[in-house]
Design goal:
Layout: H1 2-5, H2 9-12, H3 33-42, E1 48-54, E2 60-66, E3 70-74, H4 116-125, H5 130-144, H6 148-161, H7 166-179, H8 184-198, H9 203-215, H10 219-232, H11 240-258, H12 263-269, H13 277-288, H14 298-322, E4 329-331, E5 344-347, E6 351-355, E7 360-365, E8 371-376, E9 382-387, E10 394-398, E11 403-406, H15 425-436, H16 440-450
Antiparallel strand pairs: 1-2, 2-3, 3-4, 5-6, 6-7, 7-8, 9-10, 10-11
């Protein structure tokens, strides 16, 4: 942990007129965001961190990203550093560049199938426990029914039981790509990468990795990945799915070229592009060796020093970004758009909780990232969710004038009025995703229709609702 936060004195001694405290020590960022910032701006979708919290021993950081999802970062894990997964190349060496799999009758298919030999080998090598196998079958059935939310829940549970199964990671990747919520394609790419770590011959994961890279607008990396796929699996390079992806990538690269997009332009003009370590370190070293010439004019000398420091600072930022730490877990289902104070907290060591714009607060299993419970905490929005430091209580509040205390109830029967459990969780999370991706004016309309019953209670108790200033 100390290693993560140690100050690099070499960097700071170069800054003659800059306060070192303005330079971030570490970036923590979900890896898909840098390439999507411009798209979000075009859609008038704003992202902002509404709350940060540490776990009890300070090794994990939970970030509630307004306009998107919840992200958990491990502060002591150096293995989560790569932000761009073009590092798939490190998975393979020259010995892997051989033709794999015999010709198949289904090579012209729209999809990329597994051969019987590969299926048999995978089953022998990565045999699942009976419980994990049962969960996989349930997930597959939900996928066939296009119930992707449920399918992902089952895959999450199965992966906890079989953390080295390439089939489970590959299947979950396919499901995430189908569901396609914010961050899903990037998470699918991470799953493909993980599947290939366990099994380099996993054909579907390799193909899906190329598709994910293209969908994430990393078109050059997608082209290289697909070219490598075609060399390793020449028979499947003739499939319709592969040919279609080749066309999509070429079209995207051509479009980028026509727009004048280049790596150099992005490096100069964008504050969200990520450079390599070698580029940043070499530039900083070159700049540090160039001393401004003193020509008797103090003003010119100061301007030269200032320009030099600005360039050094810019490259230090690039260097820090190249070391950015990716998330470990992601929690989806709630909606965080309307207020900028929405909290998210650890509930003990095993659960995560956060408020939502639909008047509910969500509790997730920390390990599987599945939703455990959704409870109605407010007639409008739940902003505050705080656990008791040592007793089994949770306090919530929002726009209403009430503060509610929650605790487990195993004995007493609840009346309909007291029972605030949201049973239709699937509808709740789907509605929240629609809200989060709506135009701001459309979102206001959705909220008005959802909360049209505010002023229907006796005495008009909710007619003059006032939001707390944030």
């Amino acid at each position: 942990m100390l290693k993560r936060h140690r100050t690099n004195l070499f960097e700071y001694k170069l800054l003659e007129f800059i306060d070192p405290s303005t330079v971030p020590l570490t970036y923590y960022v979900p890896g898909h965001l840098p390439k999507r910032i411009d798209e979000y701006r075009r859609r008038m979708k704003t992202l902002s961190i509404t709350f940060l919290s540490f776990n009890s021993n300070g090794t994990e950081l939970l970030a509630n990203l307004g306009g998107e999802q919840l992200y958990l970062f491990n502060l002591c894990d150096d293995s989560s550093s790569p932000v761009k997964y073009d590092t798939y190349k490190t998975l393979f060496d020259k010995s892997d560049l051989i033709e794999i799999l015999p010709a198949s009758k289904s090579s012209s298919s729209e999809t990329i199938p597994d051969t019987d030999s590969q299926k048999t080998n995978n089953k022998k090598k990565f045999k699942l426990s009976p419980k994990a196998e049962a969960l996989k079958l349930k997930a597959n059935a939900s996928f066939e029914e296009q119930n992707y939310v449920e399918a992902i829940d089952y895959y999450n549970q199965a992966i906890i039981l079989a953390e080295n199964s390439p089939i489970l990671y590959g299947n979950r990747a396919a499901t995430l790509m189908k569901r396609n919520w914010d961050g899903d394609v990037y998470s699918a790419m991470r799953d493909c990468y993980k599947a290939l770590m366990f099994d380099k011959t996993h054909l579907k994961s390799h193909f899906r990795l190329a598709k994910c890279l293209n969908d994430l607008k990393w078109h050059q990396e997608a082209k290289e990945c697909l070219n490598f796929f075609c060399k390793r699996f020449p028979d499947y390079a003739k499939s319709q799915a592969c040919e279609n992806l080749v066309k999509d990538i070429e079209k995207a690269l051509k479009s980028s070229k026509n727009k004048g997009d280049s790596v150099d332009d992005e490096h100069e003009n964008s504050d969200t592009e990520w450079t390599t370590m070698s580029e940043s370190e070499s530039e900083i070293s070159d700049i540090s060796n160039k001393k401004p010439k003193l020509n008797g004019n103090e003003s010119d000398s100061n301007e030269s020093l200032s320009a030099n420091n600005d360039k050094i600072l810019k490259n230090i930022y690039y260097q820090k970004k190249s070391r950015a730490v990716d998330f470990n877990s992601r929690y989806c289902g709630h909606c965080n758009v309307a207020t900028d104070i929405k909290e998210a907290n650890f509930i003990g060591d095993n659960f995560i909780a956060a408020g939502s714009d639909d008047g509910s607060f969500f509790i997730w299993d920390k390990k599987t990232s599945n939703i455990v419970k959704v409870l109605r905490g407010d007639e409008s929005i739940v902003n505050c969710v705080q656990p008791h430091p040592y007793s089994c209580y949770i306090a919530t509040s929002g726009i209403d004038s009430e503060i509610r205390l929650w605790s487990p109830n195993f004995d007493e029967a609840l009346t309909d009025e007291e029972d605030r459990v949201v049973n239709d969780v699937k509808s709740a999370v789907l509605n929240n995703q629609v809200k989060m991706n709506s135009h701001p004016f459309e979102y206001l309309f959705l909220n008005l229709t959802q909360n049209a019953n505010w002023n229907t209670e006796e005495g008009g108790g909710h007619q003059n609702v006032e939001c707390r200033p944030s």
